[in-house]
Each structure stands twice: as structure tokens, then as C-alpha cells.
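Note on ligand handling. Small-molecule inputs were canonicalized before submission; formal charges were left as drawn, and no protonation-state enumeration was performed. Where a ligand contained multiple stereocentres, the stereochemistry in the source SMILES was retained. For flavin-adenine dinucleotide, this procedure yielded the string shown in the input block below.
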Amino acid sequence: MAEIMEAHGIVIVGGGICGLATALALHRKGIASLVLEKSEVLRAEGAGIGVQANGWRALEELGVADELRKTADLITTYHDVWRQGDNKTTRERYPVRTEFRCLNRKDLIEALAKDLPAGAIRFGCRIATIHDDHPGGHGAVLTMVDGTTMKTKILIGCDGSTNSVVAKYLGLPPVRTIPRPVFRGFTSYPHGHQFENEFLRLRVGGFFIGRLTITDNLVHFFVTMPTPSPGTALSAMDLTEVRDLVLKDLQDHECPAEIIDVVRGSDPESLNLVTKLWYRPPWEVAFGGFQKGAVTVAGDSMHAMGPFIGQGGSAGLEDAIVLARSLARAVDVVDSAGKDDDDREPPREEVIGEAIGAYIRERRLRLVLLSLESYIMGVLLVRSPSPVVKLACIAVLVLLGSKSLRHANFDCGRL
Ligand SMILES: Cc1cc2nc3c(=O)[nH]c(=O)nc-3n(C[C@H](O)[C@H](O)[C@H](O)COP(=O)(O)OP(=O)(O)OC[C@H]3O[C@@H](n4cnc5c(N)ncnc54)[C@H](O)[C@@H]3O)c2cc1C
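Structure output:
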């Protein structure tokens, strides 16, 4: 192994929503960390992200909720339009009972990053492999793709769902994929749009379409397409070509003009395409080994759950609060042990290991329930389940309080 170049207390791999939130939560508790991000700049693609009350509670704790509220209006209504094969359309409108706003991901990422101390994020730093610090030890040694190495006492993997090196080090199975392309973007209305402040969800001919108002002048949309036929290389196409293809498909399926116009008028710079959806099945979240000594995971690398209930990002924010709170308690224990008895070296490794264990115990049930709800919603939306399976899925969703969005009422507590 190459000579160790640097040593750190806490390293976070990945500067996405969860990695930045974790670094900010630790910073608010007076604990320093270093975020290693493989991109050269903050990654803010992906258009909009819906944040419900649970996410806003976490953003409050991080001290960024008020500034973010100024960027996005409240969404007050869910508006569901289901068009069946026989062209029969069902419409349902119901009020949103808790805080729900659609943020521009860029605003969220920048708000999380801007209060971090200078040098807290290191860009262009891709971790290739992770090794044990020493046999039986708690920390880890990271090797970057350029061969440099770094030692850390605590390692937090926030490196997302695809090829998470930290999840791999922990022995977690790779996340599963669903080949469903999602095309997203923003449409600007300089003179104001005519839509209600609503989340319109439209299901038509294998497409699942969403339109969320952000402000009077900005709307976010997504179009989840049916499974592409083999050979349709969407990812090789220019995003405006993908938009033309999507528009043609929507017209062929007689999609309402108000949706077609939103997609047609979208800002080319804002367009984004994901060709697959990623998830970790709920049983892996229930039984996964999320800890090895002082190494753990948070966010999508722990519990990728696809977009089906719009909770992946907010669950990562909750992880950040709970993990930072737990680690801060451990630091207090270590500090007070040091003050009580100057001759005795505080049992740092054990205390840190216990703090990470407490974080996982606190998060496990919450994450299993979210993953289960998202998984079942995915089965209903993506597959065509038999009537028996469909009935069973609906029964579980009733138990989970899906219709009343029980998941959004969760409070991860104070930082
Ligand atoms: C179509 C779609 C719609 C969604 N809508 C919503 C929604 O409305 N609301 C919601 O809450 N959630 C939503 N989600 C889920 C949400 O986007 C994710 O849960 C969230 O972005 C995950 O954040 P993360 O920080 O855990 O991972 P990521 O955002 O994937 O960040 C991981 C970071 O780690 C970096 N990285 C990876 N590997 C390495 C490495 N080896 N070395 C260094 N850096 C590395 C990456 O570059 C990246 O910046 C949606 C997801 C999809 C696909």
C-alpha cells in the first residue's frame, strides 16, 4: 500500500444532499469533517425535489429552512388524474395537510454547502477503494483513483446508490435497478403561470407525469416513461432530442395540452434524464449490516428507494440529523471522560462505535417503513400486478397510512 498522505477525524464520501447535510449537521455541533466529492463542482442536476414536512423539520435543524422557503411556495393540493385503457378518466383532488414545497435541487445543495467552513469540501476526489485501518481497528484507509491515500477515524458513506464504495466495503449487496427512464426539467413563466399551487399527478398510457409549481413563475415537471424497447439508447441522445421524443409520445397518447405545453416550453439548460431507478429492497434495509467499527452509511447508499413516495432526499436529511446528534453525544462522553481522569485515555473507538450503532438502531425502523412504502408504490406503478397482489399492496399501504402521508409527519428530533 502507498504511504498514507493525510489523516482526518471524520471523512464523508459524497457531496450530495446527504453528505452535505451530514457535514453541516456536524459543523453545527462544532465537529469538523471533510467531504470528498468526485465531481469538480457541486452537483446540482436533477431539476426539482419535493420536500414534505419531515424534510422541512430536518432543514430547520440545519438552519437553512427559512432561506429555502423563500425560493418555493407552499403546494396546497394534490390533483390526481388517472386515465384507464378505455379512456375513462378518474380525477381526485385533496388538500396537502402538511408543509410541502418543491425545491430547485441547486438551491438546496447550495444552501447546505454555503455555511460549511472553507476547505470542508474537496472536489475532484474519487475514492477507489477502502481498507481497514489495521486488523480489528475501527477506522479506515481510503485510496483515491490517483493512488493517494488518506486515513480516517470515522468514515461516513454518502456516496449514493450507484456503486457506493462504502456500501461495498460494508458488504452490502448492490442496489437493484428498474429500467424506467425519468425525464425532468423546469419551465419558466416570466409573466406568471395559470396553475394552482398543486402537485398534478397524471397517469396515462404507461406514463406517469408530475407537475409541481415552485413559484408563480417556475414549474417543475417529470415524465416517467414506460420501459424502453431494447435498443432505444436514450442516454446517448441530446436532451432536447429526448424532449422531442417525449413530446411525440405524449401527443400519441393524447396527453392533455396543459402538460404538453409545459414540457415543450421547458428550459433546455434544466433538462435532466435518469434512465434507471435505484432501490434497496425493504428486507435489505431491515437486515443490512450498516456498520463496521467506525464506518457507516447514510442517504441513498444506505436506503435508495426510488422516487415513488418522494422521500429519498428527506430521509437522507433525517439521517444527517440523527447521525450528527449521536456522534456529538459520543464526543461529549469522550471529552468528559478525559476531564475526569487525565491519566486514562478515553475509550474513543468503543464510544464512537456505540454512537454509530445507536444511529443505525434509531433509523432502522423508520427506513424500513419508508422503503416498504416506496417499494409497494413502485410495484403498483411500474409493474402490472395480479389482482391478488394489487389487493395485498393496497392493504399494506392502508396499514402504513400512505393516503394520509403518515410518513411526512415524522419528526427526527432536535440536532
Ligand atoms: C427521478 C427521481 C426523483 C426523485 N424525487 C425525489 C423527491 O421529490 N423528494 C425526495 O426527497 N427524493 C427524491 N428522489 C430521491 C433523491 O434524489 C435521493 O434520495 C437523493 O438525491 C440522495 O442523496 P444522496 O446524497 O444520498 O446521494 P447522491 O445525491 O447520489 O449523492 C452522492 C454523491 O456522492 C458522490 N460520489 C459517489 N461515489 C463517489 C466516490 N467513489 N468518491 C467520491 N464521491 C463519490 C457523487 O458524485 C454524488 O455527489 C428522487 C430520485 C429520483 C431518481
